[in-house]
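ok here's the first one, seq then C-alpha cells
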Amino acid sequence: MTIAIIGGGAAGFFSAISAKEQHPDAQVSILEKSQKILSKVRISGGGRCNVTNGCTSIKLLSEGYPRGGKHLKKAFRVFNTQHTMDWFSSRGVALYTQDDNRVFPVSDKSQTIIDCLLRATKQLGVRIELGQSVKAIRPNGNKLVLELNKSKPRTFDKVIVATGGFPKRAGFDWLEKLGHQIETPVPSLFTFNMPTESIKELMGVVAENAQVSIQGTKLKSSGPLLITHWGMSGPAILKLSAFGARILNEQNYTFKAQVNWVNVSNNELVIAQLKELADQHPKKFLSNIKPYQLSERLWLYLLDRSQLAADKRWSELGKKGLHKLTTTLTNDIYAVRGKTTFKEEFVTCGGVSLDSIDFKTMQSQVCKNLYFAGEVLDIDGITGGYNFQAAWTTGFIAGRLGD
C-alpha cells in the first residue's frame, strides 16, 4: 500500500508516523511544497513549542475550540492531551506543565520536538520529499492520482491532506472541486490595534484578571490582559479574537472594546469595596492605595482617566468621584481599529467543513481513501497548545486509515 501525506507540518508528520506504525508494510511519503518542514512547530511558544495543554478533562478541553469542539470531544476519547504527553515522554522528550496549563519540553526548545518527530519518521522509514506541490487530486477507481507542479502525476492508494490553513478561500479550490464544502477562512488569534488610544504608553503592563467584551455583541472573555505598543494582547484578548473571529471580520476590525479591569460585574460591590478602602485609609493619597492588585502604572493611568488627582486623599473622593472611578474600573471603553497577527502564529477560522468529514476516521465523505488532519479543517483553538493538540489528535486518527 502506498500512502501520501500532503504537508510537512505537525499534523502531516503525526499522520505519517501513525500511518506507518499501524501499517508497517505501507510505503509512506510526506510531500511538502516548500523546502522547510515543521516551520510552525519551530516558532510556536516563542521558539519553545507549546506542545499541548495540560487539561485532562475532555469536556473542558473541547471548550477551548471556537470551531470543532463538538467533533473533537469524541476524537479526544481516542487520542487526547494525556496520550500526547505519554507519546512524547515515551520517546525521550521530558515535558513540564506551566501554571497556565501550557505544556512545553523541559529543554524549552522547539528543536527537541522537531528532532523527536524526525527521529520517529527516520526509524519507521517514512520518506520526506521537499518541493513537491500538489495542485489537484483525481480519483481513479479506488486509487488517487496527485497532480504535481514540477513532476509527472503520481498514484497512491491512500492520501492524507495536512496542508494547514490557507488565508484565502482560493487556496481550497482544489479540495472544493472534489466536492468538499469549504468554510471561508478568516483570521483567528489576533491582537487589537488601538492607534488613537493613549493606553499604548503603558506597554508591557499586565492586568492579571480583566474581562473584555465587544460592544453590540455577546462576545466576552476574561483572563490576563497585556498592554502593547500597538494596543492590547494577552489571553483575554486572544480568546476573544478566536471566538469572535467571524463577527470581528464582518466589522472590518473596527469596534469598541469594553474593559472591566477588575473582572467584577456587580458595580455596587465595587463601590462598596472602594468605600471600605476610603474608610480604612482616609488620609492616604489615591495614588498610594491600589485596589484589586492593579499595577502602579495602570492604577495611576486609570485615576487620570477618571479625572481624579493622584494626590487627592481617599476621604475626599466623594460620591461623584466614587462613581467615576467605578465606571472606569468596570466599563472602560477603547476604540479598536485593526488587528495584528499574534507573534508569528498564523491561525485561521474556516477550511474544509466538518460536514464533509467522517470524524471517526477523518475520511472524506465525498472521496474514498482521502483523509484530512490539522488546520486544513474548520477547526481552531484558543492559544495554549489547543491547535497542536487538534493536529496530533486528527493526525493520529487519520493515520489509522479507517481501521
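and now the second one, same deal
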Amino acid sequence: MISDIARQSIRTRKDYIPGKPIEEVQREFGLTDIIKMASNENPFGTSPLAMAAMIKEIQTNANRYPESLCVELADKVATKLGVKPAQLFFDNGGDGVITMIGLTFINPYDQVVTSELTFPAYENITTKMGGQMVTVPVAPDGCIDLDGLSRVVTSRTKLVFICNPNNPTGKIIRKDVLLSFMQKMPANVMIVIDEAYFEYVDDPDYPSTIPLLADYPNLIILRTFSKIMGLAGLRCGYAISAEETIRIMLKAREPFPVNRIAQVGALASLDDIEFYNRTISNNVAGRRQYYAAFEEMRLNYYPTQANFIYVELGVDSEAVFKKMLVDGVIVRPLGSMGRPQVMRISIGLPEENRRTIASLKKALDN
C-alpha cells in the first residue's frame, strides 16, 4: 500500500479538522442565509484600503511572481514595531510561520511543550516532524499554566509554544507571570509566543513582548493579518525574533511563501485605522452582548480578551452544533480538544450575535 511508504510520523498523526466552511453547509442543507461564527474571522470583511490595493494589484501584476522577502511590507512593519526588517519572517499565514518553525527546529524525538486546550497547529507540526508533544493541563481558571510548562522542560526540549491570548479560551498570560517564566527557561529552548489576537486585548496587564527581544534571543513572536484586518483568505502572517533566528528560518522557507495580492493587501491595511478601530469597538460591544445572554441562560463562560468566547453548555456541544447548522449558524464545538460540552463562538456583528444567541437557546431547549 502507498501508505506503507509514507513517513511514519505522517501515517500515525490525527487529521486536523478546521471550522466547517459556509460552502459545505450550503451543500448539505440547501441554505443560502448562513453566518459563520466558528473561525474568528472579521465580521466587517476585509479592510477597504487593503481591498482597493489588492484589486489594483490583480489588474496590473497578477502575472508576476511576488517579491520573495516581502521587502516593502517588512520595512513598514519594522517601522511600526520599532524593530529591524531583518528581524521579520513572513509566510503563508500564521500556520505557515508555525510550519517553518517546525521545519527549522524540530528533529525526530525532540520534545515540544505546550498547554492542553490551545491552538492545534503546534501539535500538528510537532507530530509531522516526528517530535514528541508534551502538554500541560490548563490552570483551574482556564489560563495557561506557565509554571506547569516550566516543570516539564527537559534537556530534550526544543520549543515551547504559548498562545496569548489563548485560542480557544480567550484568556491571557499576565506580564509578571510571563517574565518569570522567561527567566526560568534555558537559552537553548525556543519560546514561541503566538499573538494572533493581541490587537483585541484591552487588559492593561497584557505583556508587551517586543521589548523582550533584546534580552531573549530565543524568543519568537507570532502575529497575523488574518484576524483584525480581515485577510484570513489571503494568508499573511509573520514572526518577529532575533536576526540570527530569522536567518536560519529563511533557509527552510519556500521561494514565494506570500502571494503578491496578500503582500499589497497587508501593506495597505496597516494604514486603515478607521477599519481597525471599528473592528475593536464592535468586538467590545459583542463581548457584552454575549456575556449578558450567557448569564441570562445560566451558562458558564470565560470573559475573553479575543474575538471569540468559550462557553460551557452542560450538554453535548456536537449535538448542539448540528442543531444550529439547520438554522444556518456555524459555531465550533470543542470535543476534538477534549471539551465535549464546550463551544467556541466568534464575535460577529450585533445582528449575527443575536441570531447566534437565539439559535443556541433554541438548540438547548429542544
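notes on #2: The longest strand covers residues 339-346. The longest helix spans residues 273-296.
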